[in-house]
Amino acid sequence: MTDSPAPLAVVTGGAGGIGRAVTAALTRTGHRVVSVDRDAAADPSAYATVVADLAVPEQVERVVADVRARHGLPAVLVNNAGVYLARDFLDYDARTYAEVLDVNLGATFFGTLAYARALVAAGRPGTVVNVASISGRSGSPDAAYGASKGAVIALTRSLGRALAAHRVRVNAVAPGLVETPMADRIPADRRDDYRARIPAGRFGTPDEVAAAVAWLADPASSYVTATVLDVNGGLH
């Protein structure tokens, strides 16, 4: 009798700081992790890697189909891919607006859609964890980023309710300020202001966000859906 393979998880934005931490956390909990990123240097510690531009809906659908064909139907999808340009509202144009929304919201929407359709067709349960942001609750100096993350929060609540009858859980984490290359784009004076307002007195770490993602991906949270978990050191 052969052992069953470890459950499969897909992590988008796998080359980034939070993505790599999520891959490590899910690996520790016994998952095979497929890391997806448009950067060919996606996390080498992953079970497998896929290169794709998740701003393109057809590529998002291809990723889900390819992963299923090569590795099986995932138990977990983590929609972590994100773009933050640290751009003033008056400097936006249609192209940069689309870049932010297509990745931050579009990849989450179409990735979950393709994954949920596959689960329902197979009669299988599954778990989706979206990576939102405190900016989705409080707004952001980068208006497109804040709007995209606010939409991810609304999408999480909507899909958590809509897919519950199909045994598909959809939750999100909403990190505050986290020490990642993306956060390095925040101007120094603004970083100092944020840090002064955080009750915990510091920025978070990717591992702390990843721990929250891993819990939402675990059967221990089986009665949790349509929920957004703040990971922000008390900043509101």
Number of beta strands: 7
Order of helices and strands: EHEEHEHEHHEHHE
Integer average pLDDT: 93
Largest sheet: 7 strands, parallel
What number of structural domains do the residues give?
1
Named CATH topology: Rossmann fold
Span between N and C termini?
52 Å
What is the molecular shape? globular
Q: Which residue ranges are poorly predicted, with pLDDT under 50 across at least 5 consecutive positions?
A: none
Strand order of the largest sheet: 3-2-1-4-5-6-7
Gyration radius (Cα, Å) is 17 Å
Name the CATH class.
Answer: Alpha Beta
Structural class: alpha/beta
In percent, how helical is the residue content? Answer: 40-55%
Just name the CATH architecture. 3-Layer(aba) Sandwich
